[in-house]
Amino acid sequence: MFGSLGVPELLIILFIVILVFGASRLPELGKGIGKGIRNFKDATKNGLTDKRDS
């Protein structure tokens, strides 16, 4: 659908994100995304063990 993203495209996306959110908010934005991914992984892992026990 999107094709492969190269370095120039990723730099443009990063620049737009910095413009929208500001450089000072990037660490907390990354931290929030990381927590969300971790919670999702834990929920899917727990869901698989719950299904096997039933």
Put the structure in a nutshell.
This protein is mainly α. It has helices at residues 7-21, 26-53.
Written description of the protein model:
This protein has 54 residues and is an all-alpha fold. The chain contains two helices and no strands. The protein has helices spanning 7-21, 26-53. The mean pLDDT is 83.
Fold topology:
Blueprint: H1 7-21, H2 26-53
- The percentage helix is over 70%
How many strands? 0
Sequence stretches where pLDDT stays below 50 over 5 or more residues: none
Strand content: under 5%
Oligomer class:
single chain
What is the N-to-C succession of helices and strands? Answer: HH
Keywords:
single chain, 54 residues, mainly alpha, 2 helices, 80% helix, 0% strand
